[in-house]
Write a structure and sequence with these properties.
Layout lengths: L1 H17 L4 E2 L2 E5 L5 E9 L7 E5 L4 E3 L11 E3 L4 E5 L6 E6 L4 E6 L17 E3 L3 H8 L3 H8 L3 E3 L8 E6 L5 E7 L2 E6 L11 H7 L14 E3 L2 E3 L17 H14 L6 H12 L23 E8 L4 E6 L2 E8 L11 E4 L16
Length: 362
């Protein structure tokens, strides 16, 4: 019965993943004046509630990857480092997280462009599902370099060939950040000096596309004379007139790069975390805009189901959700990963935005 339940559950996940034209993710990176590093991101899906959970994984926790057919008989891996992650649909599918060594990792959906190698049953013991790669990274490694070296020895596969691919963002306490993409069964690694990531097309294309917006500048455009006619701004913000406002991945990439680059540097790590959440407010997607003809399939308040931030140097991970906009956090320095039991729980105990009444003097 347990096995049958998993197959049914997995089929729901694959149905959702296969329709990734409805999914989106936007990632940014901020560095505070005191040196603190903050990686923040959103995760969207308008088709249903992702039933997102947090997981706390102790050192030594053992896992085994799912493989095509729904069998849990792939790569075996155990956690050298404890970590906290945010999972979607099932607790094994960690989409974002931070480990006790300060490694931050997350997956971003990459539909229509990635292609993994075909599953080879003779490589079963070294094959891992793409949706479990973040767990493998967080549990096993402390630096980006270690991840990339170990990646050479494993085979990333899709659990179902109909599902979309993903690409990954990985960063460590040195500030190094990379994007990992698998296209035509070949692994490519890009140093992400900008610190921005969305979805498709590939990362190199997104960087090239920024050149189309070289004219953008913060503030307002200067008054100009067109012959005898003076042309002036209607109001503040005309310097970035032409900034794309739609929710496609290329447009979100441009906006994220512009907002991140023009943001004043925060003085401290905690202030940079708050700033990151404020910036990512601009990427909240109303659930109705993703579906033609008003055919909204789920009763959820937002397509942006949660937003998170990791601070590798201070070992903090933060989140807020579509049901609760308050920023909540885990301090990994306060968790004894040698003793804490494995645990998973919903991000929201109550799925409704709290409204707090104000007190006043009578």
């Amino acid at each position: 019965m347990k096995k049958f339940f998993f197959v049914i559950s997995l089929s729901v996940v694959l149905f959702a993943v296969a329709r990734l034209e409805l999914r989106a993710c936007t990632g940014i990176t901020l560095r505070a004046a005191d040196g603190a590093l903050v990686l923040a991101r959103t995760i969207e899906w308008g088709g249903s509630d992702l039933n997102s959970q947090y997981v706390i994984v102790p050192r030594g926790y053992k896992q085994q990857s799912y493989l095509p057919g729904g069998q849990k008989n792939g790569l075996k891996f155990s956690a050298r480092y404890g970590y906290v992650g945010f999972a979607v649909e099932q607790q094994e599918f960690v989409a974002e997280g931070l480990n006790e060594a300060g490694l931050s990792a997350g997956l971003f959906y990459f539909p229509g462009y990635g292609r993994y190698e075909d599953y080879d049953v003779s490589k079963q013991s070294s094959s891992i599902a793409d949706l479990q790669l973040v767990s493998w990274m967080l549990g096993g490694f402390s630096t980006v370099g270690e991840v990339l070296e170990a990646l050479k020895d494993i085979h990333v596969v899709a659990v179902d060939p109909r599902a979309s691919t993903v690409h990954w963002r990985v960063a460590d306490t040195t500030g190094r950040q990379v994007v990992i993409e698998i296209v035509d069964a070949k692994v490519s690694v890009y140093e992400n000096h900008l610190g921005v990531l969305t979805n498709s097309p590939g990362f190199e294309w997104q960087l090239t596309n920024l050149n189309n917006y070289v004219n953008l500048l913060p503030g307002s455009a200067e008054v100009k004379s067109w012959g005898s006619q003076q042309v002036r701004s209607f109001g503040a913000g005309s310097g970035f007139l032409g900034l794309p406002g739609d929710v496609t991945p290329p447009s979100r990439f441009v906006r994220a790069a512009f907002f991140q680059t023009t943001a004043p540097q925060a003085p401290t790590g905690p202030s940079a975390v708050r700033q990151a959440f404020q910036i990512l407010n601009n990427f909240d997607i109303p659930v109705g805009v993703e579906f033609a003809g008003g055919k909204v399939p789920a009763d959820i308040p937002s397509a942006t189901q949660w937003t998170s931030a990791t601070a590798p140097l201070s070992r903090m991970i933060y989140f807020r959700t579509m049901y609760n906009s308050a920023i909540r956090s885990f301090d990994l320095r306060q968790i004894d990963f040698a003793r804490v039991p494995y645990q998973a729980a919903p991000l929201d105990a109550e799925k409704e935005q709290p409204i707090v009444p104000m007190a006043w003097k009578k």
